[in-house]
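Input sequence (94 aa), recorded before submission:
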Amino acid sequence: MKIWQALLLATLLVTMSVLSACDLFGGQSAREKQEQEYYQQQLEAYQKIQEDYQKRQEEYNKRLQEGLQEWSDAYGEWQEEQLEQQMKQIEESQ
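Predicted structure, token format:
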């Protein structure tokens, strides 16, 4: 009877250590919780950086488009003035 009890105790000890090592009971160690929190913080920081980058990129594109539109308008006006001056010169020379 004592051998049977010793075998049962040894089996339970081995089984419990294996199960707890495999984390089948659903418990997390403090280290794993810290790692998970750290990962979550890093993920949130990365997402915030991404959002900030996207906003800055959109603002840059908007300003670039406005600048190009202003340049295009000014260039168009300059071209019209040049054309008018050439037309006046042609008329004066005739």
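Checked by second reader. The chain has a mean pLDDT of 87.
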